[in-house]
Every structure is written in C-alpha cells, then in structure tokens.
C-alpha cells in the first residue's frame, strides 16, 4: 500500500549527477569567517607577484578574499560576506597550496596561472592531489632513477600520462602534484606509487590505451574487459656471477683456496722483538749513535756518487 507511483522519478533521471551549486541556493551567505594560510619559499616570490592579480580576480568571483604577505612569506585566503559557496574556501586552500610548491618556468607564468586558478572556479569535478613518494624506497639512487621514469625522455611519459588520465601532473622533489577529475587522480596515484615500487609506467599506459579504445565500442560497455587487457608476468633477471680469479701466470696453477683454521693469525713482531733479533737492543746509547751516524754517512756517500755520475754523463760524447 506504501509503494505508490512517483511521477517525478522516471528512467531518464541520472541519480548520480551532482547539480551545480549556485548563488540562489545560499542567498544569506555564511555565518562565520574561515581562513587558511600557507608559507612559500623565497624563490617563489617573483612568480607569485606576477600571477597574484589573476588569482585575486578568480577568487573574487567566488567571494573569497586573499592576501599575499611578502614580509612573512605567506599566502592567506578567507571567506567574506559575499561568499555563497561553503566549499569555496577549501578549493582556495588547495589553490594556495599548489601555488606555494609548484615549480613553473617563468615563460609559462600565464598558462600555469590559468591552470592553477581553474581549481578554484566552479568546476566541482576538478580536484587536486599531492602524492608523497619519498617514504616508499630507502635507496637514494634507485629513488632518483624511478622518479625519472615518471618524466621519461624529453617528458614523453609525463605527457602520455596527462593525456590518458586527463590530469595535470608535476614531479618535484619528494612529491608528485596532480590536478584533474576524481577518476584520473585515482589512476594517477596508483601509477605513481607502482612506479616507485619498480613497476614501469609503460605497462599502465598500455592498459589505459586499450581501455580507451574499448570504451568507444558501445557493444562492449556491459562486458568484462579482462580478456582484452595485457597480462604482464614478473621476470626475475638473474645477475651475473662474479668471474673466478685468473690462473697464476707464473705456474699456471689456480690460486690455492684458503684452508679454514680455528686459530688466529700470528701477531706481527713488535719493535722490541726486531731489536732483539738484530742485537740492537743490547747496544749502549753511544754505540747506537755511532751506528746511526755510520748509516747516515753511507747514504750520503751513495747520493754524492749518484750526483757525480749524473754530472759526468753530460760530458760523455754520443756514440
């Protein structure tokens, strides 16, 4: 008796659609002021000065106030009486977070600003994600090599990932920042984390390309695509064993293996032991001085004879 017909509900309605939030939905504004602040490094000051007018204009349309403090090195965003979207301050917070960390060349200031400002416009499906990649692997050399795989030669891998996922991607330091739709961000996070775990991005790129072609066919929309996707097997590449030491050239015999013995090696003789063997230990101080003087005179005579021979060699006629 309670299952009555609902004339407003029919098959043509998309229940998953998110309606846009308009100023008419909240004519009274917000009750309390909310603000967020973030610091930026010194080298970003010149870039932020150039793009700040565009940022201010984009945020003003949403009723968000912003402030750039060059003395403290901080950016602040806050709600105003004209703010009608409650989620706008969260988007503005993400905007200043990206502006504070993104490394953009000075030649691309306007394009980068337009890209960063788009996150704070009325695009509800546009979000940002900052992926931390530093704690996955400890070896610094391996980390740098695998991070370079995300960029690829001349940025080709980076460009392919941006085209397939529909996200803007930036690799910097220990993090990867991305901006785009939810689905693309989810795919991109998985690709980035797998790359640092030694899974090359080309495998994911091949899979995404196949999925894009399959999505164009309406006949395959309700079918399972696993039979079309490539299955990559893990290959454990055996490392080369260290080569054996070359045979002894003199005798032609292989180097004899060291025989294990539980006894420690004999201690080297001390200075006193050497003096006892040579008999120097029992000499008096006077005899020791005479012995040292005689050794010094002998070395001096040998050096004098060598110099004399070198001087006489200049007067020998060539043969």
Secondary-structure blueprint:
Blueprint (H helix, E strand, L loop, with lengths): L34 E5 L5 H16 L3 E6 L4 E6 L8 H14 L7 H9 L9 E6 L7 H12 L4 H10 L2 E5 L2 E6 L1 H15 L4 H15 L55 H8 L6 H29 L6
Antiparallel strand pairs: 1-3, 2-3, 4-6, 5-6
Helix pairs in contact: 1-3, 5-7
Could you explain how this protein is built, in words?
The chain is of the alpha+beta class and 319 residues long. It contains 9 helices and 6 strands, in the order βαββααβααββαααα. The protein has helices spanning 45-60, 88-101, 109-117, 140-151, 156-165, 182-196, 201-215, 271-278, 285-313, and strands spanning 35-39, 64-69, 74-79, 127-132, 168-172, 175-180. Strand 5 (168-172) and strand 6 (175-180) form a beta hairpin.
Summarize the structure.
The protein has 319 residues and is of the alpha+beta class.
Low-confidence stretches: 103-115
Beta-strand level of the residues, as a percent range? 5-15%
Radius of gyration: 39 Å
The class by helix and strand makeup works out as alpha+beta
For the residues shown, what is the average pLDDT?
82
Number of strands: 6
């Amino acid at each position: 008796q309670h299952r009555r017909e609902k004339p407003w509900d029919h098959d043509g309605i998309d229940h998953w659609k998110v309606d846009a939030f308009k100023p008419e939905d909240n004519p009274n504004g917000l009750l309390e002021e909310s603000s967020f602040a973030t610091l930026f490094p010194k080298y970003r000051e010149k870039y932020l000065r150039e793009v700040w007018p565009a940022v201010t204009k984009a945020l003003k349309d949403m009723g968000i106030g912003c402030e750039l403090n060059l003395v403290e090195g901080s950016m602040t965003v806050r709600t105003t009486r004209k703010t009608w979207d409650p989620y706008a301050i969260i988007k503005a917070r993400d905007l200043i977070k990206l502006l504070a960390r993104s490394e953009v060349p000075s030649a691309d200031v306007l394009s980068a600003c337009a890209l960063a400002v788009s996150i704070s416009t009325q695009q509800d499906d546009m979000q940002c994600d900052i992926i931390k990649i530093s704690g996955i692997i400890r070896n610094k050399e391996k980390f740098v090599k695998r991070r370079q795989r995300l960029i690829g030669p001349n940025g080709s891998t980076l460009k392919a990932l941006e085209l397939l996922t529909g996200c803007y991607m930036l690799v910097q330091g220990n993090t990867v920042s991305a901006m785009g739709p939810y689905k693309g961000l989810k795919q991109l996070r998985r690709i980035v984390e797998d790359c640092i775990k030694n899974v090359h991005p080309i495998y994911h790129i091949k899979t995404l390309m196949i999925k894009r072609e399959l999505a164009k066919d309406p006949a395959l929309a309700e079918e399972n695509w696993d039979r079309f996707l490539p299955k990559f097997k893990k290959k454990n590449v055996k490392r080369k064993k260290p080569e054996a030491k070359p045979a002894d050239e003199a005798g032609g015999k292989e180097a004899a293996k060291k025989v294990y013995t539980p006894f420690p090696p004999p201690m080297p003789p001390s200075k006193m032991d050497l003096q006892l063997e040579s008999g120097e230990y029992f000499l008096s101080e006077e005899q020791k001085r005479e012995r040292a003087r005689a050794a010094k005179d002998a070395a001096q005579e040998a050096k004098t004879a060598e110099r004399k021979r070198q001087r006489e060699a200049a007067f020998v006629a060539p043969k």
